[in-house]
Amino acid sequence: xxxxxxxxxxxxxxxxxxxxxxxxxxxxxxxxxxxxxxxxxxxxxxxxxxxxxxxxxxxxxxxxxxxxxxxxxxxxxxxxxxxxxxxxxxxxxxxxxxxxxxxxxxxxxxxxxxxxxxxxxxxxxxxxxxxxxxxxxxxxxxxxxxxxxxxxxxxxxxxxxxxxxxxxxxxxx
Length: 173
Hints:
- With 173 residues, the chain is mostly beta strands.
- Helix content is 12%, strand content 47%.
- Strands 2, 4, 5, 7, 8, 9 and 11 form a seven-stranded antiparallel β-sheet that branches.
- Strand 7 and strand 8 form a beta hairpin.
- The termini are far apart.
- The model is unreliable at 1-20 (pLDDT under 50).
């Protein structure tokens, strides 16, 4: 058995040269989220048009030229893979989007979701974007029904931070 394991490992070990391109593709990442103190509800959701979600915490940001201020992400020119999610509670139909405020255009749309009566769920978006120049972005969400206090997420109150909206950005070119 030991000989078989050794042969398997020897035949399946990736060299540094093979890993180099993979690691390089994910070296430039940024993760931002909304972090609140334990017991703090996500806030009120208002029906109507898309509204900016709060992003108040930088988990990691090693993309040169990327920054965040007042929940607005600034990204330099390049191509990016984006994954984001936003929770909601009792807002019925809801959807997220990644909005380019520099050029006033929607870059990515999230899933159509429904959070009826006592249901808490989230809308997730993912996709690839290419920016020609420095661009300001907002993670936004739209709701069918207004819900005060916890429409943007329900606190768990477990003693650790409450995490609500989140976005991961990986520079791919």
